Amino acid sequence: xxxxxxxxxxxxxxxxxxxxxxxxxxxxxxxxxxxxxxxxxxxxxxxxxxxxxxxxxxxxxxxxxxxxxxxxxxxxxxxxxxxxxxxxxxxxxxxxxxxxxxxxxxxxxxxxxxxxxxxxxxxxxxxxxxxxxxxxxxxxxxxxxxxxxxxxxxxxxxxxxxxxxxxxxxxxxxxxxxxxxxxxxxxxxxxxxxxxxxxxxxxxxxxxxxxxxxxxxxxxxxxxxxxxxxxxxxxxxxxxxxxxxxxxxxxxxxxxxxxxxxxxxxxxxxxxxxxxxxxxxxxxxxxxxxxxxxxxxxxxxxxxxxxxxxxxxxxxxxxxxxxxxxxxxxxxxxxxxxxxxxxxxxxxxxxxxxxxxxxxxxxxxxxxxxxxxxxxxxxxxxxxx
Length: 385
Ligand SMILES: C[S@@+](CC[C@H](N)C(=O)[O-])C[C@H]1O[C@@H](n2cnc3c(N)ncnc32)[C@H](O)[C@@H]1O
Ligand code: SF4
What we know:
- Helix content is about 40%, strand content about 25%.
- It is of the alpha/beta class.
- The protein has 2 domains: about 5-260, TIM Barrel (Alpha-Beta Barrel); about 315-385, Arc Repressor Mutant, subunit A (Orthogonal Bundle).
- It has a 9-stranded mixed beta sheet, sandwiched between helices. Strands 10-11-12 form a 3-stranded antiparallel beta sheet.
- A hairpin with a 2-residue loop joins strand 14 (about 360) and strand 15 (about 365).
- The chain binds S-adenosylmethionine and iron/sulfur cluster (SF4).
- Pfam families: HemN_C, Radical_SAM.
- Belongs to the anaerobic coproporphyrinogen-III oxidase family. HemW subfamily.
- This is Heme chaperone HemW.
């Protein structure tokens, strides 16, 4: 029998938890430290890879994703050594994808060529904004000119370079954003990630917001208009809105992220990395120690994991929907039924179809553009008991 995860594939996430500066909006597991002993970190990553592979080495690996933090601060030799070990531990798929996230403030040509020589074949760059005032408000360490230069270096070294922008920023009008998006599309190669600014509690922006000091954020209506315009403009430029915040030419989607959204299995190595692994007929949710030093000590002692829980089948069905409905391709309902003991409510489905937020066609349930803007309420409607 085909285990459920095989519909999505198998990937490996590696978390590098350090940045040159902490951006005020960011609640990722990222830390600024003065000195990093990269060879010590490499040994810990290699030990963890061996441990994870001892449970999964019979699989074909589809992708590796170096995320962060700022993985473009990793020594190219460290990245290369990790990839040598990965190739030793797993069989690799023909279309093996290896992505590395880069901050334009820490890019130089030699470093990028070395990443490519070490086996990286895709880069995702955090450009965030295409004007200097907003970059500085976002606390970024680079200017637009530096970001453009970094992007040029990236495209010379790699065939596949994506970049991230954050929109719905302070004082941004719909016109500002569509002009900036058109500029971004003229630079883009085949993939873009476009995120609405989220104010996360516990970040510097979160604190400022609570004190009423973060002014000029768009009202919900304007943010929704920006989202709608983003979908339309990208689609007409040939960048298919294949996921809530991701746009790509056909065939250039992030294969690694598709594993998450198609609810495949993924191993996670590094501080705070999450994993979902199916072993001996059970699916496990796994987490690693979040604080870098703590993870390092545990990894050196033989195991960086802080948690390993079985995911009950009914929760798997929910996770499958939560992830899959982010994708324009939607989900296969027969896969949902195989996981879930309860059917989705016919009444609710009919209601959501009537108001134009979902569609069902040949066993595929999809969220339509109108529903994608209110995805959380669509999911709540489908999943509530
Ligand atoms: C790990 S970072 C990418 C690489 C690198 N650290 C950088 O920032 O250049 C992941 C991406 O998440 C997005 N992001 C982080 N926090 C966000 C927030 N609060 N709202 C919207 N997007 C956010 C940014 O676009 C960022 O590029
Ligand atoms: S957005 Fe990127 S560079 Fe900024 S703190 Fe977060 S992970 Fe680091």
